[in-house]
Every structure is written in C-alpha cells, then in structure tokens.
Write a structure and sequence with these properties.
With 365 residues, this protein is of the alpha+beta class. The chain contains 5 helices and 24 strands. Among the domains are: 97 residues, conserved putative lor/sdh protein from methanococcus maripaludis s2 fold (Beta Barrel); 83 residues, Elongation Factor Tu (Ef-tu), domain 3; 62 residues. The mean pLDDT is 87.
Amino acid sequence: MAHVRRLLLSVALFAALGGAAFALYSTKMAKFAAAQTAAQQQPEHSETVTGDNARIASYARATTAIGTAHALRSITLQNEVAGTVLAVHLETGKVVAAGDVLVELDASVESAELAALEAEARLTESMLARMEQAKKSQGASEADVDRARAERDMAMAQVTRTKALVEKKRIRAPFAARTGLVDLHEGQYLQPGTTITTLQGLDNAVHVEFSVTQDAGTALAVGTEVDVAFGGHEAKAKVLALDARVEATTRTVRVRAKLEGQHLPQPGSSLRVRAPMEMPHDVVVVPVTALRRGPGGDVVFALEKDDKGALRARTRRVQAGTVLGDDIVIREGITAGDRVAAAGSFKLMEGVLVVDTDAQAQQQK
C-alpha cells in the first residue's frame, strides 16, 4: 500500500514539473513571436551617404623631377689683366645697364704710353704726307712713300693696341643685369682672372634644367609643355632642348625648358617639374573618398536600385590608378555615369539599404 502511494506521488510530481516546463516554453515562444512580429513591423536599417557619378577626365601619365632655375644670361665677372683697383662702381644687388663701367683699374702707365704713341702716329702721318708731296715733284720714290705709309700704319696699330689695353682696365657690363655679392675695394691688387661678382640677366624668362629617366626622355620633345611649381606659383614651361646623351651613371637625360612670365624664380632656385610621359587621353575618375582599400584589393560601392526600386550598395572590385587632385583614376570596375558612394562609404557593406543625400538634394531643387 505504501509502495503504491509513493508511486502516485512521483507521478503527480512529474506531471507538475511537466506542466511548469510547458508553461515556460509557451511563454518564451509567445515572447519570440511577439519580438519577430515587432521586427517585421520595423523599417529596414539604412546608411546615409553622399553619392557622386563616375566621370570622364583627360589624363596623361607623367613623371616628377626636381629642377633648377638658371638665368638666360649669367656670367661670373673676372678681370683679364692685372692691375690695382682705382674705382668701384658696383653695389650688391644693383641693376646695371649694358656698357656701364663697373670697375676701373689703374691705367696711368698705359695712358702715358698711349699719349706717346699717338704723338708718334701723328708724326708718321705727317711724314707720309710729305713723302707723297715730294713724290709729285720727283723728290721721293715710290718705295719711300710705301715705307712712310708702313711706318704710319704700324704707329696706328700700336695706338689701337694700347687703347685696347686701357679699355681692358675698364671692366664693363656686357648686358643689363643684376649684380651679385661684391667684395672689392679701391687700392686692391687683382691678379688676372680674379672673380669680381656675378651678373644675372634681367630677361622676362629663365631656363629650367632637370633630369628624367631615359624612358621618360623618349616621350619629351622640343616644344613639349611641362608643369613647373615654385614658391606657391604654378606655370608652364616649354622644352627647348634635350641632352644628346644619357648619363652613364644615373641613366637619366638632361632637359632644358624655358619659363616665361612676370613671376619668375630666382636663378639657382629649386623647382618641382611635372613632365608628361604620354599623350593625354580619357580616363574614368571617381572621388578619392569613394575608394576603399583592403587586404582583398580595392573596392568601390556602387549605388544601384533593386527590383523594388530601393537604393542599395553593391561592391565593385576595381583597379585604381593615379590620384588627380580630389579624384582618382579607375582603370577597371567602374564605367562613366555609375553612381558611387563618395562620402560615408566606410559604413557600407554588400546589399545594405542606402540613402543618397546628394540625389535627394538635387530632386528637391
């Protein structure tokens, strides 16, 4: 009897536990169904981005080099003959005109010699006139006249030579220029070939010299335009000449271009030169912000409508090229006219619903 009672109690206990478990399961299923219903009633999550269209731009592959500006006319001024400085008409940074006397050396000895030679030349000129007059009256032969003429010519040549020596002691500016640093004083003795100063021409142009690789050199020709940047200014220069040979050590070609304009770099300044390596051609570009780089390669999110007309992000694997300002060249994967996510693309993933703020703004206009 006791055994039966225990069995009945066990059955009753199991029944109670089963009922409680069923009630708990029913409650959880009801909550899950309610949550699923609520989720179905909520709108699909979307990401807000700013879209832009892929477009065509003109592009030419280029190389960049560091160039140096040179004046069209530039010399290091030196004296040809020795002498003591008598007068200095030079100032650092002063503009001088062509023919201006810059330095005078003491030419007192040569000037005295010149006076003596001029007197002798006058005498020989007088003697020649007398011989020619005497010849008319048979008082002198043709040989006497020729001898007198030769003496006159030699005397005049000596005068011309001495005048040239005197002139060499007056150092003049060969062209209009700006002088460099000057450190010269009266009384200073100068050996032949002493550096006096530098002269930089005042032309409205400068030469730009730079080096490019031998491959890039084959793409350049006389008349080719290159971009030059210096001191916040940008300008275009035209290639004047290319060196006839390739440097054996660096395998580069020396190029000279001419830069004209009002804003010019000082001679010796460093410049950044961008030289084309091919003819301009059309390429597809998108904003730089549209490109996402990762271990799997470069991707761009295209904005496309699905079957229901909703805008969604679609992953496009692309081959990116050169950056052109705020844009980047896309060689493959995107065609002109495709709508891409320009700003906010970092939030996107394949198939996510997208709101294009730029497109909405254009529709409201």
